[in-house]
Amino acid sequence: MGQRTAFWVAAGLAAFASLADAQQPPPPPPAFAASNLTESGVRSLAANCAACHGTNGKAAAGSTVPGLAGRPAADISTAMAQFKAGTKPATLMHQIAKGYSDAEVAALADYFSKQR
User: Fold this and answer.
1) Does domain 39-114 have CATH number 1.10.8.110?
2) pTM as predicted
3) How confident is the model at residue 5 (pLDDT cuts 50, 70, 90)?
4) Where are the domains positioned within the chain?
5) Most buried in the list 33, 51, 75, 108, measured by CB within 10 Å?
């Protein structure tokens, strides 16, 4: 087989491979586990907030990050919606808020509103 023939055979195989790839169905969307909105599940979700907002939403003295404990649930939910939409200024919360469903945000807001 000459070089020219080998080139055309390789080009044909590459074209066939690209057509085969183009006809593949799109991959399914990622499947996530259902939210655990039990009391212990919400407490576990809230633990993710502790690094910045303090344990149980009680910020450390002198912290520049506001505590969440005792804040009205509606205020927390509204702030999270604004972070998700990118309309409330933040450094990290835009990305973090997008990781929670509306049900998880509501459960977290309820949890923190009850912390004293």
Assistant:
1) no
2) 0.72
3) confident
4) 39-114
5) 108
